[in-house]
Every structure is written in structure tokens, then in C-alpha cells.
Write a structure and sequence with these properties.
mainly alpha, 12 helices, flat
């Protein structure tokens, strides 16, 4: 009897341990159950298409041919030999770098203006509404606005001619000399609010005691700005600049709705170059190779962004 009772107790203890292990395992899996729908959606909408695009970039006549043959890196070599591709790379870098620089300058200037106590609070409230307006418009609306403003018979030419800055009607989006600059200007106007809002939040988080201590030490306003404001804002500046670089490099609607990459490829950027390969020339393999190049560039910048965030 004693032996049977001992065996029964041992069996019950073993069953309890198994039940506890089962319960503990389920508890550990619960968080993964919660994120599984989002993970599945991410795989279906992002990871799977990326894999398919990479596959197409290694094939000859993907989608257009029923039995597309393996082409290796030939599509990439064809892209690299394309003069328009390199022109689009240069113009993308110009468009992106100039946009990031002036987004920062304008955003910081407006953030400082909205943060100062030297401006009446009512005026600051009105300016805050006016400065944030570009954020309310979609890329299509922004493109339409700037096409109207920069039309040869538009407001910009009328004002410049009235001020005697120019003496003829400039075709801003139709001239190979001015199109890329006009496009960049429109994108700068559309994108500075991100910097303004983020930097304004950063300015309001800087302790006033730092400025008071610097004032006691004899620092002037420029020294306070250079040695206190900029270092305190630097983590925000770097983070936003890296994100802005990634986003701006892939801008498509604004370019397509204003110039379409023209005239004569003068505003061709990587996004429009890839789009035309796919949906104008039906070269899906070449378009996939171009898309993978854009992805590699974007991921390179993303790597630096992630490293910066980890250091923070």
C-alpha cells in the first residue's frame, strides 16, 4: 500500500509539473500571439514583395515572359550602363541633400521664432497655424499649388516682374535649367514642418537654468545658441535628418505630378526612373533591379539611423 501511495503521489506531482510547464509556456507565447496578425500582414505586404522583386531582378523578361530565364546580375549591369540612371542618381542626391539642408534651416528658424518670448503669444499662435499649413496638404495638392504658382502666367512670375527681378516669364517647370531647382523648392516648402514641430518640442525641453548659468558666465546669445541649444538638439537633428533623407530619396507623387521627370530627364529621380521602366517600357526585370538598388541605398542610411538610436 505504501508503495502504491508513493507512486500515486509521484504521478500527481509529475502531472502538476507538466501542467505548470504547459501554463508557463503558454504565458511566454501570449505576446507572440498578439503580434502575429501584424507580423503576418508585414510579411505579406512587405517581405514577400521584396523577395519577389529581388527574384525578378535576377530574371530575363520577368512577368512579360511565361518561362523567364535566369539572368544573374545582367539586369544590374544593364542599369549601371544606363546614362539616364546615373543622371537620376545625381539629381536624386541633389534633390534630397538640398531638401534636408533647407528643411533643417527653415524648421530651426521657425522653431526658434515660435519658442521666443519676444514675440506676442497671439502672434505666435497665428504663426504656428500658418507655418504648419504645408503639412495639411497631400502631395497631389502641393503639386497642383506649385504648378499654378510657377506657371509662366502665375503669381511668382508676376511678383518677380513687378519687383523688376526678372524681365521675362520664366517657365520654371518646363526649362531644363530651372526645373530641378523649382521642384526642390516645392519639396522644401512641403517638408519643413516636420523639423519645425520636432525642434520646437526639443527647444521647450531644454532647461532654462542652462541659459541662466551661461548668462552668469558672460555668454552672449550667439554663444548660448551654439554651445547650449545646438548640442541639446543634436540627437533630434540627426534622427530627423536621417529619416528625412530616406523619405525624400523616395519621393514620387510630387515629382510625377509636376514634371514627370522631364523636361529631357532634367528632373528624373530614381523613383520616376524605376516607375517608367516598369509601366512605360514594361521592363519589369530592369525595374526590379533599379528598385533593389534604391532599397540598398535606403537600408544603408537606415543602418546609421538604427546605430544612432541605439547610442541614444
Amino acid at each position: 500500500m505504501n508503495h502504491s501511495a508513493t507512486a500515486l503521489v509521484a504521478a500527481q506531482a509529475k502531472a502538476r509539473r507538466k501542467g505548470w510547464l504547459r501554463y508557463s509556456t503558454l504565458r511566454k507565447l501570449v505576446p507572440y500571439f498578439y503580434v502575429s496578425p501584424a507580423t503576418l500582414l508585414l510579411v505579406l505586404l512587405m517581405l514577400f514583395p521584396m523577395v519577389m522583386v529581388f527574384k525578378y531582378s535576377l530574371m530575363d523578361g520577368a512577368i512579360m515572359k511565361k518561362d523567364a530565364a535566369f539572368a544573374g546580375v545582367q539586369n544590374y549591369m544593364t542599369i549601371f550602363e544606363n546614362r539616364v540612371f546615373w543622371q537620376s542618381v545625381v539629381q536624386t542626391l541633389y534633390f534630397t541633400i538640398m531638401s534636408v539642408i533647407f528643411h533643417f534651416i527653415i524648421g530651426l528658424a521657425f522653431a526658434l521664432l515660435l519658442n521666443t518670448n519676444r514675440v506676442d503669444p497671439l502672434i505666435r499662435s497665428i504663426l504656428r497655424v500658418l507655418f504648419i499649413l504645408p503639412w495639411l496638404f497631400t502631395a497631389v495638392i502641393i503639386a497642383i499649388i506649385w504648378r499654378l504658382l510657377l506657371d509662366p502666367n502665375g503669381v511668382v512670375n508676376s511678383v518677380l516682374m513687378a519687383l523688376h527681378i526678372i524681365n521675362f516669364k520664366v517657365e520654371w517647370f518646363s526649362s531644363t535649367r530651372t526645373a530641378i531647382h523649382a521642384l526642390t523648392f516645392a519639396n522644401i516648402w512641403a517638408g519643413y514642418p516636420l523639423y519645425m514641430v520636432s525642434l520646437l518640442a526639443g527647444l521647450q525641453g531644454i532647461s532654462k537654468e542652462l541659459y541662466e548659468a551661461a548668462g552668469i558666465d558672460g555668454a552672449n546669445e550667439l554663444q548660448k545658441f551654439w554651445y547650449i541649444t545646438i548640442p541639446q538638439l543634436m540627437p533630434i537633428i540627426i534622427s530627423i535628418a536621417l529619416l528625412d533623407f530616406i523619405w525624400t530619396m523616395q519621393v514620387f507623387p510630387l515629382v510625377w505630378m509636376t514634371t514627370g521627370g522631364g523636361p529631357i530627364y532634367s528632373t528624373e529621380v530614381l523613383s520616376t526612373f524605376t516607375y517608367k521602366l516598369a509601366f512605360s517600357q514594361y521592363e519589369f526585370s530592369l525595374a526590379s533591379a533599379s528598385a533593389m538598388i534604391i532599397l540598398i541605398i535606403s537600408m544603408s542610411v537606415t543602418y546609421f539611423y538604427i546605430k544612432h538610436q541605439q547610442r541614444r
